[in-house]
Specification:
The chain is mostly helical and 277 residues long. The protein has helices at 3-18, 25-32, 36-42, 46-71, 75-92, 94-103, 110-134, 143-163, 170-187, 195-201, 211-224, 228-242, 248-258, 265-275. It has three domains: 3-44, Orthogonal Bundle (Arc Repressor Mutant, subunit A), CATH 1.10.10.60; 53-201, Tetracycline Repressor, domain 2; 211-275, no CATH class. Residues 1-61 form the HTH tetR-type domain.
């Protein structure tokens, strides 16, 4: 296991027990069995480590949802697939999701808040895209309310996975939320969230990643990834970025090879946006 990954996994264990504030770098290094010097070769500070953990979790879920919204062919299956992937991610990464919920009101600095808000806005954009596709026949004035209702369902029901040790039928939950969302879309007559209000509460999003930035991330991934299929696919994608030659179908196939690897989800997300796939 790479040292950076070891530190992130061991630190997460401590953060889950003690929270961010109460966990020191010394405790993390003791738990990892490494020196402080080795820690600082990987991360400049505890905040940088926390930032890396946020990126790791949020990049995976953002990439998964972006793929589902843009690649699910059936309108009837889209909303269910969206909810299923959301709650599957919360369940699979429950320790870190619980930490994020508990810590956002306590020890996070402005930079970490801003990072989380950035990913939140990417999620909002995909939910809005989904709402506009599924409910194009209803009054457009309710679409932003629907976005916030869907986000509310995500937040409220995720607590069932994170804070209550009870058996949950994910299939039933998602079908239930699809029904609720459809009822809201059909019967809402007094929306609260307007386009003007959305503009007020939104912060400027980061610009799209440039070709150079994507190449830099690709190069780093090629050093980190050991799995042969993913590594070869990344190499071919890098070559195509430098000298475009592949058809969209080939690029899609290469992206399909890497998108399930948790360490490749973000680069697959960036490449899908770059290639407009």
């Amino acid at each position: 296991m790479a040292k950076k990954q070891l530190i992130m996994e061991k630190a997460l264990e401590l953060f889950a027990k003690q929270g961010f504030e109460a966990t020191s770098v010394q405790q993390i290094t003791d738990h990892c069995g490494i020196s402080k010097g080795a820690f600082y070769l990987s991360f400049k500070s505890k905040d940088e480590l926390i930032s890396a953990l946020i990126d790791h979790f949020m990049m995976q879920i953002t990439s998964d949802i972006d793929y589902i919204v843009k690649n699910t062919v059936s309108d009837e299956k889209l909303l269910y697939a969206f909810y299923y992937k959301i709650f599957e991610n919360f369940n699979d990464h429950s320790d870190f999701a619980k930490i994020l919920i508990n810590e956002q009101t306590q020890s996070m600095n402005a930079e970490l808040f801003s990072k989380i808000r950035h990913y939140d806005q990417l999620m909002e954009k995909n939910i809005l895209l989904m709402v506009e596709r599924l409910y194009s026949h209803v009054d457009r004035s309710i679409k932003y309310d629907l976005v916030y209702c869907i986000k509310g369902f995500m937040s409220m029901y995720s607590h069932l996975f994170l804070f209550f040790n009870i058996p949950l039928d994910l299939d039933v939950l998602c079908h239930s939320l699809v029904e609720k969302t459809n009822l809201l879309a059909k019967h809402t007559t007094l929306p609260f969230i307007s386009e003007e209000l959305m503009r007020i509460i939104e912060q400027p999003c980061q610009e799209e990643a440039t070709k150079e930035q994507i190449l830099e991330i690709l190069t780093q991934k090629l050093e980190d990834i050991e799995e042969p299929i993913e590594k070869e696919s990344l190499l071919l994608l890098k070559q195509d970025l430098l000298n475009p030659a592949f058809s969209p179908a080939i690029v899609k196939g290469l992206l399909e090879n890497i998108r399930h690897n948790p360490h490749c989800k973000w680069i697959s997300f960036l490449l899908r946006r770059y290639y407009k796939l």
